[in-house]
Amino acid sequence: MRVVYEALGVARSHVHALRGRPHAWQDGRKSRMPREDEALVGEIKAQIADLPSYRYRRACALVNRERKAASLPRVNAKRVYRVMAEHALLLPKAPKRTASSRRHDGTVAVTTSNTRWCSDGFEIKCDSGETVTATFVKDCCDREIMAWRAWAGKGLPGEPVKEMLIEAVERRFGSVEGVPSQRVEFLTDNGGAYIAADTRRIARSLGLEPINTPVCSPQSNGMAESFVNTFRRDYLSRMDLTDARTVMAQLPAAFEHFNEVHPHSSLQMRSPWEFRRELRDQRRLEIPALNCE
């Protein structure tokens, strides 16, 4: 029989399913009416009005977040893609990046919070010719930006980095004495502010273990590099860059938006704070955590 099925170009499983169907069977897909999309279009436009760089998956996550709060059914990401495509709301595909010749098999992400933190610095060019330099500390599990610093000027001095580390430790552990016995890895590049002896001393006194990436290997700190790209694409692209004072006034809202609203694919399209709140609720109910926290 297998030879017959192959000659006819049909699968045996399909023939078996056809034989098992009742005579009154009808294909419900042919008579199914498409859903009205006008309401969904309005929901999508409301979410991406201030976030024009968000693609369909993040737009879908934001729509479903609002629907969950209103006790409405979720919408499928494929439907969101179709609707956005029909109404010219999709962004053009990003150009493919040239693959690096350096092989990188390491993994920066971890499965438990407060196991590894990462940091990086970046510059923001203002229309006035001024430069704002910013740095941040990010958890490599839940992706929260725990602390950040910014100032008008070029270069990354050590003092803001040390203040930032103290704030991050106090935010996560309540005080600088609350760090667990197992040290938290602090992953950075080889910038002068990070490799300075005083910075490393402060980090170790806070319960952190400074780790620097290999020279000329930025992908080894890929999570911090990725955040910089995200920040430039989703936040700096819509900021008022008139001068340093104007830029710095907008940074607190941008970092808070990333923590509270920004859907992250590795967190099942939840924001860092949303992810951490759900974990805390699960621990209160004594439900096994999702490999984090």
TrEMBL record:
Output the Gene Ontology terms for molecular function: nucleic acid binding
Protein known as: Integrase
Q: Name one GO biological process term.
A: DNA integration
Species name for this entry?
Roseateles depolymerans
- Pfam families reported in the protein's UniProt record: rve_3
Q: Which SUPFAM superfamilies match?
A: Ribonuclease H-like
* Highest rank taxon of the organism: Bacteria
Q: What is the lineage of its organism?
A: Bacteria, Pseudomonadati, Pseudomonadota, Betaproteobacteria, Burkholderiales
